[in-house]
Amino acid sequence: MKKRVLVLLGPNLNMVGVREKGIYGEETAESIAQQIEQKAQQLGYQCELFQSNWEGALIDKIHEARGKFDGVVLNAGALTHYSYALRDAIACVHIPFIEVHMSNVHAREEFRHQSVISAVCAGQIVGFGKNSYFLALEALKDLM
Ligand code: DQA
Asked: How far, in Å, CA of 56 to CA of 93, rounded?
């Protein structure tokens, strides 16, 4: 049976290609989403991609992932840095999560150096632009 992977994107990640192009690049969120789905297919996964700007919607999706997905690639956007609610949701579901950031958060503002979700994720991939998502999909292979 195919492994089921959820790619979960948080606030403002629908604006990639429009927002801060010097940091996130010019390629649109839609184009990157298509490539994520392609990469997941190549790896033999069944993949669903979900983006929301709402913390609660992301938490609901994480709860629903229980029993439905074998692994999650998560770019939580700015929620990464302060959302204990998101952290607790991840800890609820006992599914491997990979934390992803397109930019190198450690080379940016100080508030981005902290992640409150890292401790409940299997690992963190940061700083490779859209490739961060592809690398995370690869990394999940050995965790599911
Ligand atoms: C981000 C980094 C976060 O600090 C920021 O708030 C984002 C995007 C990234 O992918 O580099 O929205 O998660």
From this structure: 16
